[in-house]
Every structure is written in C-alpha cells, then in structure tokens.
Amino acid sequence: MTAENMRNYLTPPGEIIDVNGRKVHVQRCGKGSPSVVFESGLFDTSFAFANVQPLLSTLTSTISYDRAGVGYSAPSSNLKRDRTAMASELYELLETLGLHEPVVLVGWSAGGIYIREFAHQHPEMVAGMVFIDSAHENNIYHYPKEIASIIHKGWDELIELITRMSKLTHEEILKELAELNYWQDWHPDTHKYLEDTARPEVLKYFLKLNSYFDEDTNLGNDALRSLGDIPLVVISRLKGNNPNLNEKQVKLASEIFNINHSELAGLSTISRQIKADCGHDIANEKPEIVIEAIRDIVRQVRTESDLFSIS
Predict the structure, then answer these.
(1) Are 277 and 286 within 8 A, CB to CB?
(2) What is the C-alpha to C-alpha distance for residues 177 and 180, in angstroms, rounded to an integer?
C-alpha cells in the first residue's frame, strides 16, 4: 500500500483534483469575486479553516487545500519544500482551477511566508492579503540569545515528539494525540479526517518540512520585501505560547513579537494590524476576528474594482 493510499481510508470533503499529474485535495465553496484562498500552517491542512471558510463562503468564493504530501494531497515530485516551491505549487493549483483574476490570500503561521512569496512571484494575481499570526522571515535574529535558545528549545521538543510519534503505528499515534487534545478548538466535523491523516509517513514528512521552514525563517531582513499597495490586514496574537519563558522574558519576547508583526504590516502602504486576545490558532480560537478581517479586505477590493470600472 502506498503512502498516498494509506491516507484515503475516508472520503475527504471537497474534491481531489489533478494538478500536473499530482492529486490535490481542495475544498471550494461559495460564489463571487474576489476568491479567497487559504494557506494553512506548516503541518496543517485545509481543515485548519473549518470554523472560518463556511461563513465566508456566504460572501464570496473560497478555496482551501492541502499542500503536497499533507492531508489528502499526494507528495510533490519537487523534493525541495521551501517557500519558493510552495508558492509555485499554489500558482499551479490556481491555474488548474481556472483562476486568472486577482485573489485574496489568507496565510496562517508558515502560510504567511508562503503567500508573501507568491505575491512576489505573481503580484498580478494578488488583490489583497491577510496574515494570521504569520511567521517572519527574520524571526529568531530579533531575539536576545537567551530567549532565542529557549524558543528553539520549545520547538525542538515538538520536533522530538513528532520524531518519536513517526515511529509508532497509526493507532498508537491516535492515542498520543487524544492525550494531547491537539484538536480541541477545531470544528467537530473535521476530527475524523484529521485522525485519518495522522499517519507515520505523514509525520516523517513533517520533519522534512521543518528543515526547510527553519531556512525560511532565517533569511534575514532582505527577505522582507515590499508588497506595494496591496490591501493588507495583519492579525497578531496577544497571548504567548512558550511555558519555558519567565515573566520578564515573556514581556520582552512579546515586545519583539510586536516589532516583527509591525514590520509585516509595514510591507504594504495600505495595511492595518489587529491584536487578538488569544493564542496562535486564531482562526479557531477567535474565528470572528479572522472572518471580519477577510470580509473587510473583500469589500475593499470590490469597491476598488467598481471605481476602476467606472473610471
């Protein structure tokens, strides 16, 4: 049984489409323009937006998908999994779907880096953007060494956990995840699909993704290139998620985090920042904030489109 088949015990919602010979899991809902395209976090799938996409689909067309090798999408022939590859594969997907007009891109966590790269590769395809607690291309360099090492330690512990779980059976992995209660904020209708895709070969693939993500978050300030006048909303968490930091370090880390996100907001001349009173998973902890931010961008794009057509 191939890795691809092992991830298909259940029939996933949405559809499986062919993109240049590769199977991609896509969830398309709603009608209207501009289309909103969701880009999930590093290890996450289209299900990460289960509390957001359905409601936005009453306003306009929406698209979420599983990146190559994750969820119900087949692996890519391109073994490199950096931001450039992710952006190129997103473009191939939009081409396959027949989307040739500018879209609104929504990127959570690592997805923020990926959609920024897409905007640099294909600026003509981007009508607006929303960063949901986005990763930063020069993140760790902004922190003092003592805090950076602690942050790294927390992430290393997660990678150690994934490494250990990747050596377990599917049933053993499910028991571990049940104890971690990883999906407590996710939409209840999605848990069975997430469980279906939590398989050893996927966790091994996560380790590969992590090595490239580490590169993408250590690119230096030159990687933070201007987005021009693309309408942008930056949504940032207020609550930290690293229990290894003491009170003083939490305060300093929070200040640096805010500087990082202010830098992201400064990439566009038309931007605003929203601070959400929650943790990293804002789309599930505070979905109403994300929904309203995307609605604002969609309305702004539509207004600009109407003015352009009148002129």
Answers:
(1) yes
(2) 5
Distance between CA atoms of residues 37 and 61, nearest Å: 9
Distance CA 208, CA 81 (A): 8
Of 180, 210, 173, residue with least CA distance to 195: 173
Higher-confidence residue of 306 and 114: namely: 114
- pLDDT tens for 288-298 read 999 999 999 99
Q: For the segment 20-39, what is each residue's pLDDT rounded down to a tens digit?
A: 999 999 999 999 999 999 99
| 3-class secondary structure, 212 | helix
For the beta carbon of residue 15, count every other beta carbon within 10 angstroms: 10
Domain interval for residue 265: 3-310
Residue 162, amino acid: I
Whether residue 37 contacts residue 86, with contact meaning beta carbons closer than 8 Å, is answered with no
| Rounded Cα–Cα distance for residues 131 and 287 (Å) | 14
Cα 145 from Cα 138, distance rounded (Å): 14
* CA 259 – CA 266 distance, rounded (Å): 10
**Bridge-partner residues for 296, per DSSP?**
none
How far apart, in Å, are the Cα atoms of 196 and each of 29, 48, 54, 145, 210?
23, 15, 22, 40, 22
Structure tokens at 94: 């939009």
Q: Say how many residues make up the chain.
A: 311
Counting the structural domains of the chain, the total is 1
CA distance 298 to 165: 41
Q: Provide the CATH number for the domain around residue 248.
A: 3.40.50.1820
| Closest C-alpha among 104, 98, 92, 96 to residue 39 | 104
Q: In what order do the strands lie in the sheet with 22-29?
A: 15-19, 22-29, 62-65, 36-39, 103-108, 126-132, 232-237, 271-276
